[in-house]
Known about the structure:
Strand content: under 5%
Radius of gyration: 18 Å
Largest sheet: none
Order of helices and strands: HHHHHH
Mean pLDDT: 80
Distance between the termini: 9 Å
CATH class: Mainly Alpha
Low-confidence stretches: 1-7, 219-225
CATH topology: Four Helix Bundle (Hemerythrin (Met), subunit A)
Shape: globular
Number of domains: 1
CATH architecture: Up-down Bundle
Amino acid sequence: xxxxxxxxxxxxxxxxxxxxxxxxxxxxxxxxxxxxxxxxxxxxxxxxxxxxxxxxxxxxxxxxxxxxxxxxxxxxxxxxxxxxxxxxxxxxxxxxxxxxxxxxxxxxxxxxxxxxxxxxxxxxxxxxxxxxxxxxxxxxxxxxxxxxxxxxxxxxxxxxxxxxxxxxxxxxxxxxxxxxxxxxxxxxxxxxxxxxxxxxxxxxxxxxxxxxxxxxxxxxxxxxx
Length: 225
């Protein structure tokens, strides 16, 4: 979204500290789950199941989460970026994250020979994959649109963000349920990964909401159409 936020010194100090703390905590949980999943898959060997789990975890938990957080006012690693840079990073992360998440889903579908298992994990995964396919196509178009120096209309951008948000939520819920299927993994570690993934989902939803409310309070004439 081509909207900038007020610099840090114009925001309430206490509110700013809380925002930065929650954002940093979110990044810690994202890093913990991503690193542990990578290490677990490496230890157990790269099979169809471990590759599926790794692709979906990195795609949803890391890349899609970070793409959503790009425009959060207190996001620690994009706060000093220009609006154009944030937009480019956002679409790039979303394209790669969507591709990885969709690849992980397709890998499992091929492995199961098209058979659909009616587990809650599979249902949420199917919903997320369906939305992700649409997101991938539109995100590639939006990314190249951005690279050519053009801007999306704010309402078009908002509609795309809602699809991204929906697929992210479905994918993260599927992730939480999918960890129960991990074999040869310590039960405490599984519970930690489930808990941290759920917290990441909640914090990302909260931070996305803050960004969305900020957008809604920005007059249309101030948006770069």
